[in-house]
Amino acid sequence: MAAVKETVRTVEALDVDKYAHGFVTSIEQEFAPKGLDADTVRFISAKKNEPQWMLDWRLEAFERWLAMDEPDWAKLSYPRINYQDLYYYAAPKQEGDGPKSLDEVDPDLLATYAKLGIPLREQEVLAGVVGAPRIAVDAVFDSVSVATTFKAELSKVGVIFMPISEALREHPELVRKYLGTVVPVSDNYFACLNSAVFSDGSFVYIPPGVRCPMELSTYFRINAQNTGQFERTLIIADKGSYCSYLEGCTAPMRDENQLHAAVVELVALEDAEIKYSTVQNWYPGDKDGKGGIYNFVTKRADCREARAKVSWTQVETGSAITWKYPSCILRGDDSSGEFYSIAITNGRQQADTGTKMIHLGKNTRSRIISKGISAGRSSNTYRGLVSSHRNAIGARNFTQCDSLLIGKECGAHTVPYVEARNAHSVFEHEATTTRLSDDQLFYCQSRGLSAEEAVALLVNGFVREVLQELPMEFAVEAQKLVAVSLEGSVG
Amino acid sequence: MLNIQNLHVAIGEKEILKGLTLDVPAGEVHAIMGPNGAGKSTLSYTLAGRGGYEVTAGTATLNGEDLFDLSADQRAAKGVFLSFQYPLEIPGVPAITFLRTALNAQRKARGEAEMGAPEFLKKVRAAATNLKMDFDMLKRGLNVGFSGGEKKRMEILQMAMLEPHLLILDETDSGLDIDALRIVAEGVNAMRAPNRSMLVITHYQRLLDYIKPDRVHVLAGGRIIASGGPDLAHQLEREGYDRLVAEAA
């Protein structure tokens, strides 16, 4: 028992305050007036020079949002959010139309991304500076995109990768055709709020038959105080195309909670494949549960045509509250969806996360591998739905939910929903809950590993199946993050 | 090498070891035999540094250094190795990763440079071949789905890689058929060296036909009640523990 006690102590002593990305960038910013009304929506739309139809779309969302209630079915408890006490738009101040190249970007901003290890300078990436992965990055700082790399190179093969605010001006027909078709405006409370006030995010279009030549990635940074971040990402993979996309997020340490309500829509057409990975490391709050990000996110993919394939991989280590269910609508015949998840909660963090696999087409397949790890006094819930509709003959799902508990004051919950509306579906569900055993810890220690190294090794073994799904450049990072978020010092 | 003086160990309120004294000089192999509940496993866990075993009196030193001042991982770095009666399964961690992590953790603790991949692989391949282990097995999760015999071989493989000074074999023969027993014993015998001592803990004399001890001790009621040469093991096999235990009482 002593070994476990020791681990529990280590984890308890864990300095959540050691959060590595908790610094604040001191920069002059421009805000929308505090609070939310139709004028706030107009302000944001005007800031982005949006077409009238977009403003109308937002205003309609706002009207609907007013009539909705905040959902309370998740296993989460937090004080009511005062939506009038937030800023809905914050952007680094700039002259005129904004920077034309990185040289015009505020050096403080560049320093911020350098500090976070995000490669923004293509020439450095191309020159192979200290192992910088060859990826295209869209960097979103509070409500605006500050830089997008490799745009030119990508456009040579017809790939569009740009901030969604820019796409609204340059490719309005594409945005209009797909926006809100996967997550409808009033899908849920937070998605509806996002539809009204979303500020920036990434837009990706992969033309038919194109295999995107590099990883695409968006890096979200919340900086400003009392400011919500409402990004919107839309990715369309046209027939026979492929892309792999990664999203990363961090925020400063602040005493008050900050709201993050994002919407991500993926559309995969015939034979297209999208691989979407998230490494979520928002500030989790301190060890007493003070501060931290409220992360209410709606992510959904539509496998709209035959043989489309979408794979979600998420590593969730941050946020005070996580409410997130990346889902797949398997509409096309023979389409498939995958969900690989590692959710780690520590301190006072609460996570209610999982997926929905909606089988509509024939012979659709889905696979869910969820690994939840709870430590400290945290609560970790897997909530998932697998359903097959009347015509989804031959639908197949395999679900595996494993929970690992570290210590005695944390909780793990698994809430699977299964609905089969035809007699020709095969669903398999496996679930395990284990406590990190003191026998295993002692075994590792008797071979020379310190208590911290032993925990890191055991936990990395537990999540290995999912880590393998991440693009290689990020798997190593994620592995470190797993150890750090449980220990504070192991890495 | 290993010197234990008047060792008292309790688990919770219950005293298990009650004044155990033992001296194992460098290069010697000592067998500890005894009936169930004598405190054999308590002795091996206490020496290896498992939590929950409270040393209430006495000392144990390895080459003059007090073991009880050190955590389990520090003891490992000083050369203590316990071969488990029931080796643990570590899902998702390939045996080879585990071995390399452990080896380099020990080297780091001793202030030595980490062993590079080529040297490590060469060494581990050679060790696996000696133990007639399929190298592919090392790529699977440590001990996951291994048979009893495979797990024991894996323990000996770890021992060969970590090159400890004090080897504690806790019921290494349990769960082994005769062929596996021979392979494991050969592996252990190959490690005999002038600067290395072994404590072989076992119920039965059988293992001692393969690993020849220099001394045999009988542990009962938390103390060593008899010591002797290899013949003592044969005597125990014939007569059982009862007479010795009765005499000691």
Explain how this protein is built.
The complex is a heterodimer of chains A (491) and B (249). By secondary structure, chain A is an alpha/beta fold. Chain A is built from 13 helices and 23 strands. Chain A has helices at 2-13, 38-47, 52-66, 107-116, 122-126, 151-156, 164-170, 172-178, 189-197, 438-445, 451-462, 464-467, 472-487, and strands spanning 29-31, 90-92, 135-141, 144-148, 160-163, 202-206, 215-221, 232-237, 242-250, 257-260, 263-268, 273-280, 292-303, 309-316, 321-324, 327-330, 336-345, 350-359, 365-374, 379-388, 396-405, 411-420, 426-435. The model of chain A is unreliable at 1-17 and 125-133 (pLDDT under 50). Chain B has 249 residues and is α/β, with parallel strands linked by helices. Chain B has one domain (2-248): 3-Layer(aba) Sandwich (Rossmann fold). Helices cover 37% and strands 29% of the residues of chain B. Chain B is built from nine helices and twelve strands. Chain B has helices at residues 40-48, 72-78, 95-109, 117-130, 148-162, 178-189, 206-210, 231-239, 242-248, and strands at 2-11, 14-24, 29-33, 54-62, 65-66, 80-83, 90-94, 141-142, 166-170, 197-202, 215-220, 223-228. In chain B, the strands form three sheets. Chain B has a six-stranded mixed sheet, with helices on both faces. Chain B has a four-stranded antiparallel sheet with strand order 2-1-4-5, with helices on one face. In chain B, strands 7-8 form a two-stranded antiparallel ribbon. In chain B, helix 2 packs across helix 3 (95-109) and helix 5 packs parallel to helix 6 (178-189). The longest helix of chain B is centred in the middle third of the chain and has 15 residues, at 95-109. The two termini of chain B are 30 Å apart. The model of chain B has no long low-confidence stretch (mean pLDDT 93). The interface between A and B is medium-sized, with 29 and 32 residues.
